[in-house]
Specification:
The strands form 2 sheets. The protein has a 7-stranded antiparallel β-sheet. A two-stranded antiparallel sheet has the order 2-3. By secondary structure, the chain is an alpha+beta fold. A hairpin with a 5-residue loop joins strand 6 and strand 7. The protein is built from 5 helices and 9 strands, in the order H-H-H-E-H-E-E-E-E-E-E-E-E-H. The chain has one domain. The structure holds iron/sulfur cluster (2 copies). One iron/sulfur cluster binds next to loops.
């Protein structure tokens, strides 16, 4: 299924998520890298050694949820846009996501956008909280969004409303 569509099945996604207890303590990385590929910027970007690939650069990265401080430095460094940050510490009803977003124009803080699932299907409304795009991110902006908690495992991307209507 994944080989054909490129869309991870729910059980594959769950394996990449930290525990709910960890998510509720504060920001933490979800590293959705599913295939063996020669790549390791996530490991080299992490100042805390929380992502490990090991001696073989083809290994799938492993993120240590206790070592990860949720700084987000790895998010813009992943060429596959495979990393996001989740933070469940702000509210019992919502989760904050920090995701890489390479479409223009970028949204603005305060904007409501259409949340999408991993297959690109409309899922929910999401509120843009922050947009970061410094030169050090090398043209991979990172957008922080507030999403209803029930979409913790299904929200993955978004589309601006203007794009939704054409
Ligand atoms: S969010 Fe920060 S601490 Fe966590 S894995 Fe990424 S770079 Fe490391
Ligand atoms: S940088 Fe991204 S694509 Fe490369 S190994 Fe790390 S998570 Fe996978």
């Amino acid at each position: 299924m994944f080989e054909k569509t490129g869309v991870a099945a729910p059980e594959m996604v769950l394996e990449k998520f930290p525990s709910v207890e960890r998510i509720n303590r504060g920001p933490v990385a979800v590293v959705e890298c599913y295939q063996k590929i020669p790549c390791n910027p996530c490991q080299t970007a992490c100042p805390l050694g929380a992502i490990e690939i090991g001696d073989d650069i083809n290994n799938i990265p492993q993120r240590d949820e206790e070592l990860c401080g949720g700084c987000g430095l790895c998010v813009s460094k992943c060429p596959g846009l495979a990393i996001m940050i989740v933070d469940g510490s702000k509210s019992p009803d919502s989760v904050e996501f920090r995701i890489p977003y390479e479409f223009l124009p970028l949204p603005a803080a305060g904007e409501t956008v259409l949340g999408l699932d991993r297959a690109g299907r409309p899922l929910c409304r999401a509120k843009v909280l922050k947009v970061l795009n410094p030169p050090s991110f090398d043209r991979t902006p990172v957008v922080t969004l507030e999403v209803e908690r029930k979409y913790l495992y299904t929200f993955r991307n978004f589309r601006r409303e203007a794009e939704e209507h054409g």
